[in-house]
Every structure is written in structure tokens, then in C-alpha cells.
């Protein structure tokens, strides 16, 4: 009875041991992975290494320059060597992680017959109209014509000429080192017409450390897919002034041509409104000497905020808004002048605020008050107003006056108010800015997602990130091969995709639980389940060790 | 030279009309109007209407230039191809039984309905975007409008303006009854007015007064209307309306004479120079035939009679554009006075402020003999802040007893007594006369049970479930891993021993 009983007990003990081990195995093999899987957050894989690679991206901005030599511009034996290509490359020193290299690829060739003919004309304007006939040049490329040293195309004291289109003229030289000297002149002209450090520094103003560039450079408008331009006429005193402006005509005549020229940069929409009883935030001071009122330069920053609340947000789109305000001062405060830092009245009576817009003060002609009763009918001289606003618009977009090389003739600006190569400069700056913005956005997104492991990364977010990375690389390639237009499009896509990924609302669904709460929830379940398993495992372990030691003792 | 001068004059004369003819006649116009209606209950309703009309086809023009019409709304119309838009934000409820029929009632909270042009392909998407944009413009939670609270009525809500077809699939309607209307909704609404709140009737729109009212409803209605009698082309009409009802007891402190200053704490000083019409109407209809119900000061220059909402009404009209109205006293402060003798009673009501001061309601009433008088007060149950609950929140919260102080006529005329001589219990209250005595009664305090949240419920559920699971698991685990041995009973259990004891007592052999 005892032996089978003991055997049965042993059998039972072994069975119990096996059951305990099986429990532990089930918990470890099935339970833990199940728990891990159900509480896990979905995180699609992201190209982290490529994103960190973007930080050390080298941007090569290629400017294709075609240099056309007319007869008698260089010595004959030099002409025999044509055509050939010279590359001039230099690094643009910026305190920025993006290394930017500027590369002028000069393709030297002889002039064709019709070019010879055009350049032998009497004046530069006639030559230009002849060149205007053939199709437009690609964005970003330049053509420099080298004319003979004594040509009468340019005034005798001028060495070079920069035209409104993507074209320039340089005087040649009869010299042994002709190509070197001319090459130097061409580079000078090409730099003025294309990339300069200033343009790039202004475009990257947001990304550069404060000290060097941003303090003295005006910050241009941030790059965006589109812009809204709002002209507002502020009439704080409708009892005295009945102001009329022909804004429809002015927009059609002056603003639209300019915006049509800028079409490549983004979509523009223009509207206007009249706001009554909208006052500036600052009380103008009275100047007894001239019996006029003035706004001092230091008070101008306070002018904008109270007006802004009346301007109204743009309901219909998300593009940045540029505000141009025409302020007709109230009768009690007219005439009103804006003073600069030295206390002298500003000639245009206007000022602008970077990335916001411009304000112009329009004083009513004092003669209008004579004899007529209030309100006085005021008809705004739109030519004067639009001159100021268009100049401000250029400034806001960061189209600065170029730094000309010495002895350079500069053509008057085109009727649209912007030259083709100025547009190219804007496109370059915008492309570089877009790339910098996209890189920064992607880097900080990757950092954020790496740091907080609870954020869900959905597949569409991941695909936007991939698209943005690909677009950045494509834009860099296009820039390096000199295709400005397609590079700009790619850089815009990079910004759009990266911002869409960064601001995706699904990233906000952060599954954040503090650790103490987690434990409070887990302990009532996990503790009673884990303790028996651990105890029996411990017991089994002890017994096994005992049974190992026993045989040793016998030995 | 002599010939030249007349010639140039002639040229000028020819040019003059030409130059003036070039500038378009004003294509937009503004009319503003305020109607003050004394209500039968003694309250006063004020209804503002601002109507901007714009002779322009908003959808056709690409570049849009705005003068009086607000740009934000104009852009909405053209972007979302709206045909009509009606939005109202209301606080309170218009009590038709006491106040009569309103000009335009609106439901409590926010109501939005819009008709889209039949060119819109995805109406639901436009509707969603429209409500989001409006929510931004008016700082209201209209962004909570989604498919769960949007309906497409098929019979009601026909277009109010000019309409070619009424295919109701282009109509969307939604109400958010929970929406609380406050200053932040009024400010953007005021910004849409051409004169802002600087001149004209809009001067009166002062937020701290407009929201201390029993009813506040502000609305925006946009619709296309006929440009002229021939109706060949359309104009857009924007009506901004605002109705408020001032409470006689809260704002008027029990007295029933009203003035603009008393209602709005402002007076009218100048008309809006942009308005082509700016008028104040006061309802002076005689209801009870005797000719002295309401007196208005200053006396009106003109009156206006018409059938409004089925009854003949008389209005006193003040035209702000008429210099005489304002010039006499530099400002216009309309005063309304009831001529009938004031009721024999006094009511003082001081509303409570949350966590600051309690309600106070005092009434002086003369009660007829053997009558029952009931005073009932409605209250709302509100959730307190969670730290404000007492340790036993389910016990309830006390409302202090009400007090009744009364002079009760005595059955027997008492002799005037000397205070110092008579017993002390008889001289607590000063005797007011021989024929009545003073009594002060207190009612029971009221115990109100407020809703009490269960603070620990979620965690309790978790703990309970986990415990149940753990217990089940534990017994299962024990059952499977423990070894069970059959133990031979040495003497048997307690039951057996007991049984044997009984058996022995009975004389039966034990088991």
C-alpha cells in the first residue's frame, strides 16, 4: 500500500512540477508577447539615416552661363580654341550646416550670324529687341555677349551692361591672357545677376545664428505656396473725408503685371477693403513749426497692432497675408508725416514691416477743405500710392537692388517691375530656403519621434516623410544640374510633404500614461498571477539543486 | 488770350460732368435700425438691425474689392458658392407667453443653415469647411457641426431670398443647443459693421450690458435679393440682427422707467456717416384704449403705424440723420415711462454670482385675507468643482430658510404700553400700532441633493475585475500544480463522531 502510494505521490509531484513549468512557459511564450503586442503603439519605419544624412547635404547651385564671343572681341588665335567650357566654383561661407557651393559653368562659343548682326546695331536697346524675338531662355541660365573692345554699343566709359532679361554684355580685350581677363569680367557680371551671399543669407535668415546676418538684413517673406495680398483703405474719420480709390483699376494696371511675372513663385490672390473708424495705435505728436503732426520712427512698431484686429483674417485660404494699408489721417491730425530716425520726414510717407506688409499715410490736400463743407470728397491718386506699394512688395519678397560691378551700365527695369534675372535670384533663394526648411522640419520630426516612443506613426505620415526626403534629394540634384524651375518645384514639394507629416493630427494622439498609473492598473492583475508562478519556479529550482547535490554527496 | 480763357472754361465744363460720371454710384448701402418694444411683463426688448446691401455678383468676380460689405463674409460666399447663410447665436429663450411674438426668434445656442449654389458638387464637404471657417470668424464652437447633428430639411427652411430652384439637397441645417454665447462672439460680430462700434446705433452695443439680459440673440443673415423692381440682376444683402430683452428687476431694479442710458449705459451721439438710413422706433401702441400707457421723452417728431405680426401698432420714430433729433442736447437719450400708477408692491432681486454672493429676493406684498400665496423659485443643479464637495456630499446641500416678516392685525386692540414697565417678553419687537403686531417667521431650510460624481469608479472596476480574474486564476493554478493525497481518516470527521454520540445515546451500535 505504501509503495504504490509513494509512487503515486511522486507521480503527482512530477505532474504538478510539469504543470507549473507549463504555466510559466505559457506566460512567457504566449502571455508576455500578447501583452506586448496589444499595448504596443504602431510605428511605421522611417528613413532615419537618410534624414540625418540631409543635415550634411552639400548643395551645388549650378548657373549655366553661355558666353558668346563676337568677332574682334578676342585675338584670332584664341577664337580658334572655341567652343569649350570652363567651370568656376566657389563655396559660399555661411554659418549653416548646409554647405552651399556656387558653380558657374561657362560655355564659351562663337556668335551666330544673327547675334553678330544684332550686336553690330547702333544701340543696346535695339540689340535687345532683336534678341527678344527668339524663345525665352530657361530659368537660371545666363547669356553673356562679349563684344569688341571699341564697340559703340555701350558708352565708351562703360565696361559691361546688364539687361532686363537673362542677358548681359561685356567688352572684350585684345590681349594674350584674353580668356582669363574676360572670364573674370563675366564672373563679376554673372554674380551680380545670380547668386550672392546676401541673397542666400537673407533667405536662410531663420536658420542662421542671430549674430552675423539677421540683425542687419531685412527678413524677406517666408516661402509659401501662395500669398494673399490685401489692400486696405483706412478712413478713421468718415465724417470729414469721403475717400474714393480706384483700386480695381490700379490692381489691373500695376499689381497684376508684377504678379504675373512672379507667377512661378506662387499663387497670388488680391483683394481690397475699406475700413472705417480704424485708427492707428499711436497718437501723433504735433509739430508747431510746420503745424503738422508726425509719427516718430520709434513709435511705428506700435502702430500696427490695433489696426490688425480690424483687418480681419482671411477666411478663404491658409496662405500668408500681405497687408498694404493706405491711411487717410483724420481731420484733427492732418497733415500727418512719418519721421525717420533723424527726425526728417520720410519722402514717401510710408513704412513697411517685414513679413507683414506696408503702411502709407495719404494726406488730404489742404486746399480741399476750402469752401466745401464736410465731408470732403477725396479722390486718391493711385499712381503715387501704387508706386510705394509696389516698391514695398519688392522689398517684402526680398528683391533687393543688385550690387553692380564698377563701370556697369544698368538698364531701366521692365514694365512689370521685375527683371527676369531678379526672378531667378528669387527662385534660387526660395529653393535654398525651402530645402533648409524641409531639412529642419524632417530633422526635428525624426528627433521628436525618436525621443517619445509613445507616438503612433501611421503609414501615411511615413509615406509623406519618404516623399519629402526624396523631394529634397531630387531638388538638390536639379540644382546641381542647373534646372532651376524643376528644382524649385521639387523643393516646394519637399516643404509641403514635410510640413504635412509634421503637422499630421494623428501624431497628436499621444498615448501618454504616467508610470505610476500604469503600475496601479497592472498590479492588481499581474501581482496575484506572477507570485504563484515565481514561487513555484523558485521551489522547483531549489529542489532541482538539491537533487543535483545529492548525487555528488554519494560520490 | 481773351479767347483762350472762355475756351478753357468750356473744356472744364465739359470735363467736369465726365469726371464725376466716371466714378460709380455707391454700389453698396447701409441701413440701421433699432426697435424698442416695451413688453407686457414690464421688460423691454431692443432689436437692432444693420442691413448692408451690395450690388455685386460675388461669385463672378475674381479680384474682389470690398467697401461696406465685410471682406470675411464676402470671401466665404464666393469660396463656398453660398446662396444663403443664416447663423444665429442665442442665449436664453424668448418667452412668448410674457413677451408676445418676437420679430425673429432663434433657438437657444447656435443655429446655422445654409443654401449652396447648385454648382457645388460635394455639399457635405463644403458644409464642413464652412462651419469650420465660421467657427473661426465668430469664435463659436461651430466646428462641432458634423454629420451627427446636420440635417437636410425637405419642406421647411425654404430660401428667404431670391431663388431659382429649391432642390433641398443643397440645404444644410444644424443646431448646437449647448453653445454658450458670450462677449467673444459679440466682438467679431461688431467688427463686421462698417461703423464698428464707433458711431451710429452700434455705439449702444456694449457687451457688459447686452449679456446681463434675459434674452440675447445675435444673428447674421446673408441672402441674394433683387437689385431693382425688374429683378434682372441680384444684389447681396447682409442683415446683422441683435435682440435683447432687459429684465425689469435685474436691470431696471424694479422700476419700470427705462432710458437708453439705463439699458445700454450709453446714449446716441452721432449717426453713422456711412448709413443712408438710421432710425430708432419705439413701440407706443395703446393696448388698453385709455390714452396713457407709455410716455416717451423727447416727444417724437413722427409716428409710424402699420400692421405688424397681425396687430396694429404705433411706433414713435426718431431719425438720427435728422439734425434736429441730436443737435438739441448733443445726445439722444430716449426715456420711456409708464403712466399707469405703479403696482402696490416692491420687488428687489439681487442675482447671485458663483462663489461670490448668494441670491437675494425681497418682496413686499399685501396679501388678501384667507388666501394662499405661493412663491416658487426654480434652480438648476450644477456640478461643483471637485474640491468643493463636502466629505459627505450625498447628504445634500442646505439652502437657508426664507424669512417672512409681517404685520398681522390683532384681534383685540392693545393698549399702548410703557416699555420699561411691561414684562420683557412683550417688548422685543417695537409695537407699530395698537391694531397690529409684528411677526417674523422662518421656513425650514431646504436640503438639496446635488449630483455627486463617483470619483473612484474607474479604478474600482479595474480592481474588481482584476481580483476576480486573479482569484479564478489562483484556484485554477492551485488545482493544477498542487499534489493531492488521499488521507485515510483516522477517527472520522466531526459529523461521524456526533453521529456516534447520538447512536450511543440511542443504544444503536456506532458506525
UniProtKB/TrEMBL annotation, chain A:
A Pfam family the protein falls into: PIG-S
Record GO cellular component, one term: GPI-anchor transamidase complex
Keywords of the record: Endoplasmic reticulum, Glycoprotein, GPI-anchor biosynthesis, Membrane, Transmembrane, Transmembrane helix
GO biological process, alphabetically ordered: attachment of GPI anchor to protein; GPI anchor biosynthetic process
Chief location of this protein within or outside the cell: endoplasmic reticulum
UniProt membrane topology term: Multi-pass membrane protein
Compartments, record wording: Endoplasmic reticulum membrane
Residues spanning the membrane: 19-36, 519-542
InterPro entries named among the record's database cross-references: PtdIno-glycan_biosynth_class_S (IPR019540)
Pathway, per record: Glycolipid biosynthesis; glycosylphosphatidylinositol-anchor biosynthesis
Highest taxon in the source lineage: Eukaryota
Stated family: Belongs to the PIGS family.
The protein's name in its UniProt record: GPI transamidase component PIG-S isoform X1
Organism: Lipotes vexillifer (Yangtze river dolphin)
From TrEMBL, chain B:
BP term (GO), one: attachment of GPI anchor to protein
Span of the signal peptide: 1-21
Signal among keywords: yes
Membrane-crossing residue ranges in chain numbering: 459-480
Keywords tagged on the record: Membrane, Signal, Transmembrane, Transmembrane helix
GO cellular component: GPI-anchor transamidase complex
Pfam families: Gpi16
Keyword Signal among record annotations: yes
Protein name, entry field: GPI transamidase component PIG-T isoform X3
Organism: Lipotes vexillifer
Top-level taxonomy: Eukaryota, Metazoa, Chordata, Craniata, Vertebrata
Gene: PIGT
Amino acid at each position: 500500500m505504501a509503495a504504490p502510494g509513494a509512487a503515486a505521490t511522486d507521480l503527482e509531484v512530477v505532474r504538478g512540477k510539469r504543470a507549473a513549468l507549463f504555466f510559466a512557459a505559457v506566460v512567457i511564450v504566449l502571455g508576455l508577447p500578447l501583452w506586448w503586442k496589444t499595448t504596443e503603439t504602431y510605428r511605421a519605419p522611417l528613413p532615419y539615416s537618410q534624414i540625418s544624412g540631409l543635415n550634411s547635404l552639400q548643395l551645388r547651385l549650378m548657373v549655366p552661363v553661355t558666353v558668346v564671343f563676337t568677332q574682334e572681341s578676342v585675338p584670332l588665335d584664341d577664337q580658334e580654341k572655341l567652343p569649350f567650357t570652363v567651370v568656376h566654383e566657389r563655396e559660399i561661407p555661411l554659418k549653416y550646416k548646409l554647405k552651399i557651393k556656387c558653380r558657374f559653368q561657362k560655355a564659351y562659343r562663337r556668335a551666330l550670324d544673327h547675334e553678330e548682326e544684332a550686336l553690330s546695331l547702333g544701340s543696346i536697346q535695339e540689340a535687345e529687341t532683336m534678341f527678344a524675338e527668339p524663345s525665352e531662355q530657361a530659368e537660371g541660365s545666363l547669356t553673356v555677349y562679349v563684344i569688341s573692345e571699341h564697340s559703340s554699343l555701350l558708352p565708351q566709359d562703360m565696361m559691361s551692361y546688364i539687361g532686363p532679361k537673362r542677358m548681359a554684355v561685356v567688352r572684350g580685350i585684345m590681349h594674350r591672357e584674353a580668356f582669363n581677363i574676360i572670364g573674370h569680367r563675366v564672373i563679376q557680371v554673372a554674380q551680380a545677376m545670380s547668386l550672392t551671399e546676401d541673397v542666400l543669407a537673407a533667405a536662410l535668415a531663420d536658420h542662421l545664428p542671430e549674430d552675423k546676418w539677421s540683425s542687419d538684413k531685412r527678413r524677406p517673406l517666408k516661402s509659401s505656396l501662395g500669398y494673399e495680398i490685401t489692400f486696405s483703405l483706412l478712413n478713421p474719420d468718415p465724417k470729414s473725408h469721403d475717400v474714393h480709390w480706384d483700386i480695381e483699376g490700379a490692381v489691373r494696371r500695376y499689381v497684376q503685371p508684377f504678379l504675373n511675372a512672379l507667377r512661378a513663385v506662387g499663387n497670388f490672390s488680391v483683394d481690397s477693403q475699406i475700413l472705417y473708424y480704424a485708427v492707428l495705435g499711436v497718437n501723433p505728436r504735433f509739430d508747431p513749426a510746420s503745424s503738422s503732426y508726425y509719427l516718430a520712427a520709434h513709435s511705428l512698431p506700435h502702430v500696427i497692432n490695433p489696426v490688425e484686429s480690424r483687418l480681419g483674417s482671411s477666411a478663404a485660404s491658409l496662405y500668408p497675408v500681405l497687408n498694404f494699408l493706405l491711411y487717410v489721417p483724420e481731420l484733427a491730425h492732418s497733415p500727418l508725416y512719418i519721421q525717420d530716425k533723424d527726425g526728417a520726414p520720410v519722402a514717401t510717407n510710408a513704412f513697411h514691416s517685414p513679413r507683414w506688409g506696408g503702411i502709407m499715410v495719404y494726406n488730404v490736400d489742404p486746399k480741399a477743405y476750402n469752401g466745401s463743407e464736410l465731408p470732403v470728397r477725396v479722390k486718391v491718386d493711385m499712381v503715387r500710392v501704387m508706386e510705394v506699394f509696389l516698391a514695398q512688395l519688392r522689398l517684402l519678397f526680398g528683391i533687393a537692388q543688385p550690387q553692380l560691378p564698377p563701370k556697369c551700365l544698368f538698364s531701366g527695369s521692365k514694365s512689370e517691375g521685375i527683371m527676369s534675372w531678379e526672378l531667378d535670384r528669387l527662385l534660387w533663394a526660395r529653393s535654398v530656403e525651402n530645402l533648409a526648411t524641409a531639412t529642419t522640419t524632417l530633422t526635428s520630426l525624426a528627433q521628436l519621434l525618436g525621443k517619445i516612443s509613445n507616438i503612433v506613426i501611421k503609414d501615411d505620415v511615413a509615406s509623406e516623410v519618404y516623399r519629402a526626403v526624396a523631394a529634397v534629394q531630387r531638388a538638390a540634384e536639379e540644382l546641381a544640374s542647373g534646372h532651376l524651375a524643376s528644382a524649385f518645384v521639387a523643393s516646394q514639394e519637399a516643404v509641403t510633404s514635410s510640413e504635412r507629416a509634421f503637422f499630421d493630427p494623428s501624431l497628436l494622439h499621444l498615448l501618454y500614461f504616467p508610470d505610476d498609473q500604469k503600475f496601479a492598473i497592472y498590479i492588481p492583475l499581474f501581482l496575484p498571477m506572477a507570485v504563484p508562478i515565481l514561487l513555484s519556479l523558485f521551489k522547483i529550482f531549489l529542489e532541482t539543486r538539491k537533487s543535483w547535490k545529492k548525487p555528488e554527496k554519494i560520490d | 488770350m481773351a479767347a483762350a480763357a472762355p475756351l478753357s472754361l468750356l473744356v472744364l465744363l465739359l470735363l467736369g460732368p465726365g469726371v464725376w460720371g466716371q466714378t460709380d454710384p455707391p454700389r453698396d448701402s447701409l441701413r440701421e435700425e433699432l426697435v424698442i418694444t416695451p413688453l407686457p411683463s414690464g421688460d423691454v426688448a431692443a432689436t437692432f438691425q444693420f442691413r448692408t446691401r451690395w450690388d455685386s455678383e460675388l461669385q463672378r468676380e475674381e479680384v474682389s474689392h470690398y467697401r461696406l460689405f465685410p471682406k470675411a463674409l464676402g470671401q466665404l460666399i464666393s469660396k463656398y458658392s453660398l446662396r444663403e447663410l443664416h447663423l444665429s447665436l442665442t442665449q436664453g429663450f424668448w418667452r412668448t407667453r410674457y413677451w408676445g411674438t418676437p420679430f425673429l426668434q432663434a433657438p437657444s445656442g447656435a443655429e446655422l443653415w445654409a443654401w449652396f449654389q447648385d454648382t457645388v458638387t460635394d455639399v457635405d464637404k463644403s458644409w464642413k469647411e464652412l462651419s469650420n471657417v465660421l467657427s473661426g470668424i465668430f469664435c463659436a464652437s461651430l466646428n462641432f457641426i458634423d454629420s451627427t447633428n446636420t440635417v437636410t430639411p425637405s419642406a421647411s427652411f425654404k430660401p428667404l431670398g431670391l431663388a431659382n430652384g429649391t432642390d433641398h439637397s443643397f440645404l444644410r441645417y444644424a443646431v448646437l443647443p449647448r453653445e454658450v454665447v458670450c462677449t467673444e462672439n459679440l466682438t467679431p460680430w461688431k467688427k463686421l459693421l462698417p461703423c464698428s462700434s464707433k458711431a451710429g446705433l452700434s455705439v449702444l452695443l456694449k457687451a457688459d450690458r447686452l449679456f446681463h439680459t434675459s434674452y440675447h440673440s445675435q444673428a447674421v443673415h446673408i441672402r441674394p435679393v433683387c437689385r431693382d423692381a425688374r429683378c434682372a440682376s441680384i444684389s447681396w444683402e447682409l442683415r446683422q440682427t441683435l435682440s435683447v430683452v432687459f429684465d425689469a428687476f435685474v436691470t431696471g431694479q424694479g422700476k419700470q422707467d427705462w432710458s437708453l442710458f439705463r439699458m445700454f449705459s450709453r446714449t446716441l451721439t452721432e449717426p453713422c456717416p456711412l448709413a443712408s438710413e438710421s432710425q430708432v422706433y419705439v413701440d407706443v401702441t395703446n393696448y388698453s384704449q385709455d390714452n396713457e400707457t407709455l410716455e416717451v421723452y423727447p416727444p417724437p417728431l413722427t409716428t409710424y403705424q402699420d400692421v405688424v405680426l397681425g396687430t396694429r401698432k404705433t411706433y414713435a420714430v426718431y431719425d438720427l440723420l435728422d439734425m434736429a433729433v441730436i443737435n438739441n442736447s448733443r445726445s439722444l437719450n430716449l426715456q420711456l415711462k409708464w403712466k399707469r400708477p405703479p403696482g402696490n408692491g416692491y420687488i428687489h432681486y439681487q442675482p447671485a454670482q458663483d462663489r461670490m454672493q448668494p441670491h437675494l429676493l425681497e418682496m413686499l406684498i399685501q396679501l388678501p385675507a384667507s388666501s394662499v400665496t405661493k412663491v416658487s423659485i426654480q434652480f438648476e443643479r450644477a456640478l461643483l468643482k471637485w474640491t468643493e464637495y463636502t466629505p459627505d456630499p450625498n447628504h445634500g446641500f442646505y439652502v437657508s430658510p426664507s424669512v417672512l416678516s409681517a404685520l398681522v392685525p390683532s384681534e383685540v386692540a392693545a393698549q399702548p404700553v410703557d416699555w420699561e414697565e411691561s414684562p420683557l417678553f412683550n417688548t422685543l419687537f417695537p409695537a407699530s400700532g395698537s391694531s397690529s403686531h409684528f411677526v417674523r417667521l422662518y421656513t425650514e431650510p431646504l436640503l438639496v441633493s446635488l449630483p455627486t460624481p463617483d470619483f473612484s469608479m474607474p479604478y474600482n472596476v479595474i480592481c474588481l475585475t482584476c481580483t476576480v480574474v486573479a482569484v479564478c486564476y489562483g484556484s485554477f493554478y492551485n488545482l493544477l500544480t498542487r499534489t493531492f493525497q488521499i488521507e485515510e481518516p483516522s477517527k472520522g470527521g466531526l459529523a461521524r463522531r456526533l453521529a456516534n454520540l447520538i447512536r450511543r445515546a440511542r443504544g444503536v451500535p456506532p458506525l
